[in-house]
Amino acid sequence: MQLCFATNNAHKLAEIKALLGETFALKTLKEIGCEEELPETTDTIEGNSRQKAEYVWEHFGVDCFADDSGLEITALNGAPGVHSAYYGGSRDFQGNIARVLEELKSASDRSARFKTVITLVLQGKVYQFEGVITGQLLKEQRGSQGFGYDPIFVPDGHERTFAEMSIEEKGKISHRSRAFAQLVDFLKPYS
Ligand code: IMP
Whole domain around residue 151: which residue ranges? Predict the structure, then answer.
């Protein structure tokens, strides 16, 4: 079965390829002839995930799935959410963290959650899968692994930040792996 993962992130592609096994001829965007930037113009994580997957289906006629993720902070009414990648003004992890820490300066509630939504378009039908991990945001950064907001996020039930965990450790509990696990389960009957 031919299936496209609508991402240009080689790391994400390798991760999901390992989970899906050989049954699916998982294609990259380039391999299906899609060289353009996918649209991400909605104001929700769900919306952007769906927009990317539907774009590929509509323009290339290939079954596909896309993911979109973000950090939702309780005290900021769910921000940065869909704006997580550019929250500090540019695509810069340190700038993003700086803005979050500044905005949480006087907040007593430092709870937050990472969320991933995967949208699968299979023969024109749309399915969505959501993975969430809740945690607390520190006042300073700890650790050097990972990316994004990892250095300030301590998942509930853990002592260390995501940036202090190995990729494997984070991969067992992360929002992304939880959403992907649901996708893999859903696709099993099609293999
Ligand atoms: P994407 O949709 O996976 O590209 O994620 C959008 C943005 O959300 C990233 O640029 C990060 O700022 C943030 N983000 C998503 N997942 C993670 C994560 O696992 N750790 C830290 N930050 C993340």
Answer: 2-190
